[in-house]
Structures are given as structure tokens and as C-alpha cells.
Amino acid sequence: MEKAVLKISVTGSDTKAGSAGFTLIELLVVLAILVMVAAAFPVALNRALPGRRVNAAAEKLASSVRELETLSITSGQPVRRKVNELAVSFPSSTRLTMTSRDGRTVDSFVVFPDGSTTGGYFEIVDGVHRRALVVSELTGRAILESRDP
């Protein structure tokens, strides 16, 4: 005695033994899932963006300090820049402050031809993300530090 096998798809319709493929409903369900995943991606990216902006701004600031050192050495003259001039290309949500070694807020930064600087502590902030650039007074060496919570 032979048993008859009846195949039924997810939608409940009969399928013939030789047919293969997906129903329209199955394809639409998969498409809806992909749309939801794609919609969640920008939200996740937005949360990571402020941290990336802070990192980029800190690297740009370190590069600007090195550029000022080069300019001072080649010209043989001290080079002075206001802190807000150093932050000109930062996004509007990113703040830059500079404090001296003794904790006073400073509005300008000077690099001397011998490589020394007025030194200081630059802090770049965007939301809860923070990054610090510490510039040595004696050597002018700039060191990036992470300040994320």
C-alpha cells in the first residue's frame, strides 16, 4: 500500500512535488525584516558619530600643533594662535578649551623656534565624549589622551 504525500507551503497552498521557490508572502516577510534592519543602522551610527567627531578633531588639533612647530622653526619666529582659531574647522557641536599647567583657562597658544611651547591641556568635547591633547612646555610634544566615560 502506497502512502500519498501532500506538501503544503507556509501559506497553506498545495505544492506539486517538482515545484520549488518561495511564495510572494515569504518574500515580502524577508523584505520587511531587511527594511527594519536597514532602518536601525542609522540610529546605531548616530550614537557612534559624536565619539568619532571627537577623535577626528583631536587628531586634527595635534596636526595643527605640529604644523605650528614647523612654521616657527622654519621662520625663526614665535608663532601665536588663538584657541578659537585652532578650532575653526571643528563641527559646531564640538567644543575646544585650553588650560595652562596651573589650571587657568588660556585663550592663546605659542610655539617658539627652539621647539618649546607655552604648553597646555587642550580638551575636545562633544556630548559625553572627551579627548585631551597634552602639549609639553619644554619639548612641544603633543600626546593624545582618551577621556570617554
Name the CATH architecture: 3-Layer(bab) Sandwich
What's the helical proportion of residues?
A: 25-40%
**Percent in strands:** 15-25%
Number of domains: 1
Task: Name the strands of the widest sheet in spatial order.
Answer: 4-6-7-8
List the total number of helices.
2
Rg over alpha carbons = 30 Å
CATH superfamily: minor pseudopilin epsh domain
Mean pLDDT: 82
Summarize the structure in words:
The model has no long low-confidence stretch (mean pLDDT 82). The protein has a 4-stranded antiparallel beta sheet with strand order 4-6-7-8, with helices on one face. The longest helix has 52 residues. The protein is built from 2 helices and 8 strands. By secondary structure, it is of the alpha+beta class. Helix content is 38%, strand content 24%. It has a single domain, classed as 3-Layer(bab) Sandwich (minor pseudopilin epsh fold). The radius of gyration is 30 Å and the shape is rod-shaped.
Short description:
By secondary structure, this protein is an alpha+beta fold. The protein has helices at 24-75, 83-86, and strands spanning 7-8, 14-15, 79-82, 95-99, 108-111, 120-126, 129-135, 142-146.
Task: Walk me through the topology.
Layout: E1 7-8, E2 14-15, H1 24-75, E3 79-82, H2 83-86, E4 95-99, E5 108-111, E6 120-126, E7 129-135, E8 142-146
Antiparallel strand pairs: 1-2, 3-5, 4-6, 6-7, 7-8
